[in-house]
């Protein structure tokens, strides 16, 4: 069975040939570099066994992108701590949404109204909207890219309709078809100020089961790279709505 590899990072400035990948199952680090083939060089390697290969990589590749801990211990936080991040971020808050639906949306009375009428109402006195409006009016940026299926699920149609309310308080809502997002990870997360990631864990019923904070620089940069790729390909929600 083929490994499930996740791109970790590269310091290459041109062709990206020198890189690290992580095996999602075992946690092993796959080093991608220039093969060492000279017999005299190989003869100097201790414990070099049959079937093994040697590669040469710049030291900074391992320093910048290698794991900093032998075993990563997730830092889990409660909902109250998570909510405070939206009040204390300094510059930017951005989310990638990849699921086909969310239990929290299905439990929302606005979702039931959407099912009944085809249009979702909104209470702009809700604390979320009050806070986001205050943050964006202060010059901070809040945005999301949502991955949508073709055809869209009912929950995705609800969120597409609801996007106008998010936009009304200053959120930048963008969309991307799932077939155009094959290179993006199937993860839901928020990035705050390009320095902290809140990774959202879900069960099979689309309920949030945990909120994990990630601050390790190499991991945060990886999520920022995902953000940049998603933003490059995504289109504004109102433009997307005319094509679905």
UniProtKB/TrEMBL annotation:
It comes from Streptomyces thermoalcalitolerans. It comes from the Bacteria. Residues 81-241 form the DUF6879 domain. The lineage of its organism: Bacteria, Bacillati, Actinomycetota, Actinomycetes, Kitasatosporales. This is DUF6879 domain-containing protein. InterPro entries: DUF6879. Pfam families: DUF6879.
């Amino acid at each position: 069975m083929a490994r499930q590899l996740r791109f970790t990072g590269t310091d290459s400035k041109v062709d990206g040939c020198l890189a690290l990948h992580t095996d999602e199952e075992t946690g092993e680090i796959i080093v991608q570099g220039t093969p060492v083939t000279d017999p005299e060089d190989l003869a100097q390697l201790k414990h070099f066994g049959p079937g093994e290969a040697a590669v040469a990589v710049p030291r900074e590749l391992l320093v910048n992108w290698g794991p900093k801990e032998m075993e990563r211990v997730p830092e889990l936080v409660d909902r109250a701590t998570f909510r405070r991040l939206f009040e204390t971020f300094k510059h930017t808050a951005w989310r990638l949404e990849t699921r086909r639906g969310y239990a929290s949306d299905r439990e929302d009375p606005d979702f039931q109204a959407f099912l009944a009428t085809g249009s979702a109402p909104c209470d702009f006195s809700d604390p979320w909207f009050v806070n986001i409006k205050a943050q964006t009016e202060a010059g901070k940026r809040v945005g999301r890219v949502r991955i949508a299926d073709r055809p869209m699920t009912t929950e995705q149609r609800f969120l597409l309709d609801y996007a106008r309310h998010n936009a009304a308080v200053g959120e930048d809502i963008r969309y991307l078809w799932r077939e155009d997002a094959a290179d993006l990870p199937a993860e839901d997360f928020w990035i705050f100020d390009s320095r902290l990631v809140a990774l959202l864990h879900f069960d099979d019923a689309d309920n949030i089961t945990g909120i994990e904070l990630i601050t390790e620089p190499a991991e945060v940069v990886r999520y920022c790279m995902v953000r940049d790729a998603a933003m490059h390909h995504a289109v504004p929600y109102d433009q997307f709505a005319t094509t679905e």
